[in-house]
Amino acid sequence: MSTEITWLGHSCFAIRSGKYDLLVDPFLDDSPTAPVKAADVAADFILLTHAHFDHMIDAVPIANRTGATIVANFEICEWLKGQGVPEEKVIAMNVGGGADLAFGRAKMTPAKHSSSLPDGSYGGVAAGFILELGQKRIYLAGDTALTLDMKLFGLEGLDLAVLPIGDVFTMGVDDSIEAIKMLNPQRVVPCHYGTWPPIAQDATAWAERVRSHTAAEPIVLNPGESFEF
C-alpha cells in the first residue's frame, strides 16, 4: 500500500494512506505559507500534536465540514467537545498510549514543548505520533526539543521522520541532525520553518548536512508539494 504525504506549510501535513485521508496539525486559513484553505482539504482523521493555535486552529471547522474524527490528548478532546465536536468524533490519548484505528495504528510519543489552548487554558502535554500505515512507520515529532527519547522511537525502524528545524520555538538545524542520527529513519522531511522570519531556515543547506552527517535521505518540499513512498 503506497502512502502519499503533502506538506501544507508550517507543520500541517496531508497524508493519504489507502482510502483514508489524514490531516496533521491543521493551520491553513491564517498561515502565510499554506497553499490551500481549510475549506479545501479532505480529512477522515485529524491528528493534533498539541494545542497551540498554529497546530489546531482549523481543526473544528474542518471536522464539522468533513465529519473527520480528531485524535488528540485528553485535554484537547475535552475542549473540542465544548466547541461542539461530537463525543464520538474525538479519540483521546496520552503519551505512551496507542490506538488501533481504521487507517492503522497511532502511538502518542512524548515531546518537549509547551501547550495551551486558543482560549489560554491548559492544553495538556505536547506530543508526537508514530503512525503504522500498512508496512510503513512514520514519526511525526510535533513541536519538540531534542531528547534522548528519540533513540527509542527509532528502535523498530522508521520509513520517515518529520522534524521541526525552525529553532527559537523548537529544535533547530543542529539539534535536528542529532535527532536524525538517533532516529535513523530512511527519509526525513523538515517542517516548522519559514512561516515567519524568526524561524527562517535554509532547507537546502539543511539537506546537505543531513546527507553529509546521517544515513537518511532528506526530502525538502515546498508548500503544496507531495511525495509517495
Instruction: Give a short account of the largest sheet.
Output: 7 strands, mixed
Task: Give the proportion of residues in helices.
Answer: 10-25%
End-to-end Cα distance? 9 Å
Poorly predicted tracts of residues: none
Tell me, briefly, the overall form.
globular
Q: Report the order of strands and helices.
A: EEEEHHEHEEEEEHEHEHEE
CATH class: Alpha Beta
Count of β-strands:
14
Give the full name of the CATH homologous superfamily: Ribonuclease Z/Hydroxyacylglutathione hydrolase-like
Please give the order of strands in the largest beta sheet.
Answer: 6-5-4-3-2-1-14
CATH topology: Metallo-beta-lactamase, Chain A
Instruction: Domain count, please report it.
Output: 1
Tally of alpha and pi helices? 6
Determine the mean pLDDT.
Answer: 97
The portion of residues forming beta strands comes to: 25-35%
> Which radius of gyration do the C-alpha atoms yield?
16 Å
Give me the CATH architecture, please. Answer: 4-Layer Sandwich
| Class from helix and strand fractions | alpha/beta
